[in-house]
């Protein structure tokens, strides 16, 4: 059985190495001179005030946000995501980016305490990208996990919800 797992791991690794020549990869639209590779900043996502780190690569912008919700308990929250440049509109790499995100989407009161709710979704962002900074405004739609109180009553259902976000980052 151990030999079968080793053989399976070998074939998986061989396919990963071969994926670099895959013609189905998306087009790399960003270049090394588009922006600094690493950027840090701050912003807000719904009621989550956060700091964020962004990684600019040829295929788009990956980001991580960490902060607190503006409620009585100041619950911590975090999100990660990726945005792909869909339609560029300027000499800098300004334009519309489509993306996905996952993490804490809101904080709801459950049994007299606020609880951060996990979820995921997709977004459309307009990004102003230059060598010095990244400024992005996005509108997304996603859904979060269902929250119940200790009696089994549903406090928050899994249903679509809109998410607005703004971040401003500077290059390192």
Protein described:
The structure is a single chain. With 172 residues, the protein is mostly beta strands. It has a single domain (29-171), classed as Porin (Beta Barrel), CATH 2.40.160. It contains 1 helix and 10 strands. The protein has one helix at residues 2-18, and strands at 38-45, 48-57, 60-69, 76-88, 95-110, 113-129, 133-144, 147-148, 154-156, 161-171. It has an 8-stranded antiparallel β-barrel. A two-stranded antiparallel sheet has the order 8-9. Strand 6 (113-129) and strand 7 form a beta hairpin.
Give short descriptive properties of this protein.
eight-stranded antiparallel barrel, Porin, two-stranded antiparallel ribbon, single chain, 10% helix, 172 residues
Kindly provide the radius of gyration, computed on alpha-carbon positions and rounded to a whole number of angstroms. 19 Å
- Sketch the topology as an H/E string, one letter per element: HEEEEEEEEEE
Classify the secondary structure makeup into a structural class.
mainly beta
How confident is the prediction overall: mean pLDDT?
Answer: 87
Please state roughly what percent of the residues sit in beta strands, choosing from under 5%, 5-15%, 15-25%, 25-35%, 35-45% or over 45%: over 45%
Count of β-strands? 10
Biggest beta sheet summary: 8 strands, antiparallel, barrel
According to CATH, the fold-level topology is: Porin
Helicity range of the residues? under 10%
The CATH architecture term is Beta Barrel
Poorly predicted sequence stretches spanning 5 or more consecutive residues: none
Instruction: State the end-to-end CA separation.
Output: 49 Å
- The overall number of domains is 1
Helical run tally: 1
């Amino acid at each position: 059985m151990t030999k079968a797992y080793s053989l399976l791991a070998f074939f998986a690794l061989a396919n990963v190495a071969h994926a670099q020549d895959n013609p189905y990869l998306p087009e790399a639209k960003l270049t090394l001179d588009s922006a600094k590779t690493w950027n840090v900043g701050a912003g807000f996502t719904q009621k989550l005030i956060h700091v964020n780190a962004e990684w600019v690569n040829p295929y788009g912008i990956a980001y991580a946000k960490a902060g607190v919700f503006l409620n009585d308990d100041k619950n911590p929250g975090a999100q990660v995501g990726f945005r792909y440049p869909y339609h560029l509109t300027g000499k800098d790499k300004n334009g519309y980016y489509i993306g996905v995100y996952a993490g804490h989407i809101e904080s709801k009161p459950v049994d007299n305490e606020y609880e951060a709710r996990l979820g995921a979704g997709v977004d459309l962002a307009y990004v102003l990208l230059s060598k010095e900074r990244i400024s992005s405004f996005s509108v997304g739609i996603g859904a979060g996990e269902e929250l119940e109180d200790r009696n089994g009553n549903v406090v928050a259902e899994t249903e679509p919800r809109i998410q607005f976000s703004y971040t401003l980052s500077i290059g390192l």
